[in-house]
Specification:
six-stranded antiparallel β-sheet, alpha+beta, 3 domains, Enolase-like, domain 1, Beta-Lactamase, Arc Repressor Mutant, subunit A
Length: about 350
């Protein structure tokens, strides 16, 4: 049974473990948190909390550490108001005020600031390409061997890719290729574009002189467009977290960073423990990893997510406040159509 006393002891253990990454014992709770209970009473309650699944006992110490279930309970019931760190607020506000950025640049800058402020990996999840269809392609030739391509979806989302060719491409080829692709691919789901390119290859070869170079460039761009909607900043920060000194855990984490579907489909895995806070932040735990996400909306209903990735032993109050502030700043700057 969770009594007020056990909740007080549990919260003190989580707070202490977040600060030190060391198992917490009864003497530490008495001395640092001024708990007015005997050591025997605290130990008995710690044993009860362990039996309920909220604490775990390590092999190297008589102290306890929070379990994943314990972190979930802590975030559901014991978080404070998640107030924004003042340094973080100033850093983001000044960066936004001083720069003329598009949405993507603002999101990447926010990730960089979040990573530095939390000393963890931060990231962003862009619009889900599975729900979008190609609306239009614009291809601008810079010179004979370089061009910029802009993809526009039915939601108004844009992606820009730079093409570099090994040989000169005539302007007429650029123009003809763009016309054919717009005619044949409009309305195609983003994830199906690479496959559909194979079907229109004969149409390109019959009209476009250097169709081979253009075909390869577009296929590569479409593959990236469909898969590159996850961005990370500060992956190296995880090297300095005690939880990832285990080389096998670190390898597993780095493999996760290379697979966008791990992050875009995180909510679909029923094995992951998850909770949504009152302020709308989403928290998910995967083994020893915690992922905190905050959604933002720009350009009408187009959405994205900022996230911080780190060990379960993270300062949830501080991080949720930071993420929420950064997400609201992005909305404030770009939801009214001020960004091109």
């Amino acid at each position: 049974m969770l009594t007020p006393r056990r909740i007080e002891i549990f919260k003190a253990i989580v707070d202490e473990f977040i600060k030190t990454a060391e198992p917490v014992g009864s003497k530490t709770l008495q001395q640092k948190y001024k708990l007015q209970y005997s050591s025997a009473t605290i130990r008995n309650d710690m044993q009860a909390l362990e039996e309920m699944g909220y604490l775990e006992k390590t092999h190297t110490s008589s102290g306890r550490v929070p379990s994943t279930l314990g972190y979930k309970f802590y975030c559901e019931h014991l978080l404070n108001n998640s107030s924004i760190d003042k340094k973080m607020e100033i850093a983001i506000k000044e960066a936004f005020d001083a720069s003329n950025m598009n949405v993507e640049e603002a999101v990447h800058l926010s990730c960089s600031i979040l990573s530095e402020m939390t000393n963890m990996t931060s990231g962003a999840i862009g619009p889900d390409s599975r729900t979008q269809k190609l609306e239009h392609i614009k291809l601008f030739q810079l010179d004979g061997r370089n061009a910029v391509c802009v993809f526009i979806t039915n939601t108004g989302h844009t992606e820009t890719k730079t093409f570099h060719f090994d040989e000169d491409i005539p302007y007429e080829d650029i123009e003809s290729c763009t016309e054919i692709l717009n005619e044949k691919l409009r309305g195609t789901p983003i994830t199906e574009l690479p496959r559909k390119m194979e079907y229109i290859k004969p149409a390109l070869s019959g009209v476009v002189q250097r169709h081979d170079l253009l075909f390869t460039a577009f296929v590569k761009a479409f593959i990236k467009f469909a898969g590159e909607n996850v961005y990370f900043s500060g992956k190296d920060k995880m090297l300095y977290q005690p939880e990832f000194e285990d080389i096998d855990k670190l390898k597993q984490l780095m493999t996760m960073f290379e697979d966008p579907t791990v992050w875009t489909r995180m909510d679909e895995d029923e094995n992951n423990l998850a909770v949504t806070t009152e302020r709308g932040a989403q928290l998910t735990w995967v083994n020893d990893l915690a992922v905190v996400r905050s959604k933002f909306y720009v350009k009408g209903n187009e959405s994205g997510e900022l996230m911080v990735v780190g060990p379960s032993r993270m300062n949830y109050d501080k991080i949720i406040g930071m993420l929420d502030y950064a997400a609201r700043m992005i909305e404030k700057m770009y939801s009214s159509g001020g960004d091109d």
